[in-house]
Amino acid sequence: MTVGILMSCTGQKIEKEKDSTGECDFNYVVEQFADLQILRYQVPGFESLSLKQKQLLYHLSEAALMGRDILFDQNNRYNLAIRRFLEVVYQNYTGDRNDEPFKALEVYLKRVWFSNGIHHHYGQDKFVPGFSPEFLMECMHKVNVSQLPLRPGQTIDRFVTEIFSVIFDPSVMPKRTVQSGDRDLILASSNNYYAGGITQKEVEDFYQKMADPNDNTPVSYGLNSRLVKEKDGTVVEKVWKIGGLYTEAIEKVVAELQKAMFYTENDRQKAVIEKLIGYYQSGDLKTFDEYAILWVEDLDSEVDFVNGFTETYGDALGIKASWESTVNFINKEATKRTKIISENAQWFENHSPIDDRFKKKEVKGVSAKVITVSMLGGDCYPATPIGINLPNADWIRRDHGSKSVTIENITEAYDKASQGNGFNEEFVWGAAERETIEKYGFITDNLHTDLHECLGHGSGITLPGVDPNALRAYSSTLEETRADLFGLYYLADSKLAELGLTPDAEAYKAEYYKYMMNGLMTQLVRIEPGKDVEESHMRNRQLIAQWVYRKGKADNVVELKKRDGKTFVVINDYAKLRGLFGTLLAEVQRIKSEGDFAAGQKLVEEYAVKVDQTLHAEVLERYAALNLSPYKGFVNPVMKEVKNSKGEVTDIVLDYTEDYAGQMLRYSRDYSFLPTYND
Ligand code: ZN
Questions:
Q1: CA-CA distance, 241 to 547, in Å (whole number)?
Q2: pTM for this structure?
Q3: 9 CA to centre of ligand 1 in angstroms
Q4: pLDDT for the residue numbered 25
């Protein structure tokens, strides 16, 4: 079985520090509810693009929105039914909209929109409604039956039996994706990547059979299909393509891609889009690889995009990819920074603290840029990555390189939205640390993302003969750990100051402090009391922070100190801390290079999963007092064509005034093409 090895990053760091440059006249914060804050991002530089580029962005953006329903259905087979049902209730409610049960229903629906389904986008647990079945029943009886998302021939009673238990019964489909533990991960997961009661063993056998150990350029088996066990016990793939599963949405995506082809900047870019269309039409994963190669080699175009079944974080086995899209253009000024990094990629590889046997002799095609996104869709919306590194196929990365991006208009929005929110005052040990963070936090954070994406994921080799999927359910966490450590290790290197990337030799301390504070303490604000850490980026951060904390105890490198009953992270020896990051990097690289599953499992289970209950409770209490949200996401700008009297497009303009519910309802009205049930 060869699958995408989870190379890119959909994690976002939650706390962004105050930027001393201060004043902003743009409203970055849209609203806040449950554990979520909705932000708005700006698209600086859009106006000065050519009309042709804007039209290209416009059609790619339309394509980014056309696939929205796919992700809902991938996440759970009832998601579209529940979303549509609640939207009808929400829009037709005639009672007082300030009544508690209605407000609770509104929050529930907003969370469903945010998570593209009924399970938490990060924690994976099913939402607990704050309203009763009786209230929902009452609302339902007030809407016109024809508006309800019934199956053909389904009675209302049957609909209620089916849907209400999914919403209200905590034992029904409790978790979207179960990533670890001593059980059948596929049966325990409620996502829609597998169906018909298929077991983990059956899935593994199915894809094991496909994998050819002598194939040097294997396709990403299973990436674009649902695996189903039919009634007679046979196992089949239902491919997501035109004429296959999700055809109604994919046809719309393709129609926009076809329009986009009229406005491409060059022939290579045109060929990229053409190949992607071919892949959507055939579902052939060989064509997908050809597309990925064309895409990764297109380095001249200013406009770029991701559109398709891409990341496999949502599948416990890392086989099936969720649908996502981002549309973007290059930020030329900031790209000078990542250019310096990629031009020196070989130097970084050669000086890495890993065993020489695991180093890349020749680092190929590390292309890195800073981009400005203009539209987010699918699994990149509303929660969005701050950096992406694609494609995921190991052999394409080996033979053709990878494209790595840092999304700076998103990191900037995070930064601006969190200015002066009191977080650092509460959790950072002293004024000196706070000042360092204020001064260097934004720049070193971006730099860490650059290093993680641009060098970290691309560094090192897997020894010949090692199964690329050897780390199985731990591969994602360990891969992110490796990339993070690479970035952390080099942030403190004098080479960075020498290259002019960091302002001075002290700047890295801002990121070191934030990283340790986040990994040891503050990221726990995202975890409910009593729960383990599940999500792979969070696991990776805790793994690193806990490992260096415990290993450095004898030398008192990092301390958890109490003051007025509150716990703080104190770093006593930054140089030794860097040394520990290097030691752990060497070990994690060894684990990946040799495919040492047992050691990888031990690292993750020992350091990344369990939570200190007392500290957790304290962090939650302190955080609650700040009235902040641990998760953030974005509304998109509205992109509009401006036409003259002859109907010709004369400009594309962006509007930043749409609110969250307005955007979600508009998307559900204008960009919803799938049947309610896609069995
Ligand atoms: Zn990553």
A1: 44
A2: 0.86
A3: 4
A4: 54
The reply to whether CATH 3.30.300.30 applies to domain 247-633 is no
- State in Å: Cα 541 to ligand 1 middle: 11
Kindly give the distance from the C-alpha atom of residue 130 to the centroid of ligand 1, in angstroms, as a whole number: 35
State the Rg of the chain over Cα: 24
Ligand 1 center to residue 77 CA distance, Å? 28
Classify 82 as helix, strand or coil: helix
445 CA to middle of ligand 1, Å? 14
- In the predicted model, residues of the chain with pLDDT beneath 50 are 1-24
Please give the sequence-ordered ranges of beta strands (E in DSSP) within 160-284, or none if there are none.
Answer: 194-195, 225-229, 235-239
pLDDT at site 365: 63
Asked if 69 and 674 touch (Cβ cutoff 8 Å), the reply is yes
Q: Supply the DSSP string of 45-76, one letter for each residue.
A: TSTTS-HHHHHHHHHHHHHHHHTHHHHHHHH-
What lies within 8 Å, CB to CB, of 641 at 6+ separation is: 58, 649, 651, 652
Rounded alpha-carbon distances, angstroms, from residue 347 to 64, 459, 478, 615, 653: 38, 11, 24, 41, 43
Q: Which residues of 180-209 are buried (b: 16+ CB within 10 A; e: fewer)?
A: beeebbbeebbbbbbebebebebbbebbee
Interval between CA 575 and ligand 1 midpoint (Å): 25
Q: Quote the tokens at residue 672.
A: 């919803």
Q: Give tens-digit pLDDT for 39-95.
A: 999 999 999 999 999 999 999 999 999 999 999 999 999 999 999 999 999 999 999
The rounded distance, in Å, linking the Cα atoms of 569 and 235 is 51
The per-residue pLDDT for 10 is: 35
328 close to 56: Cβ distance less than 8 angstroms:
no
Give the residue from 59, 492, 527, 472 showing the smallest Cα distance to 303.
59
34 CA → ligand 1 middle, Å: 27
Amino acid 348 reads F
Q: What pLDDT does 420 receive?
A: 81
Whether a cis peptide bond, with omega within 30° of 0, leads into 382 is yes
Query: Residue ranges per domain, the chain?
Result: 78-168, 247-633
Q: pLDDT at position 27, please?
A: 85
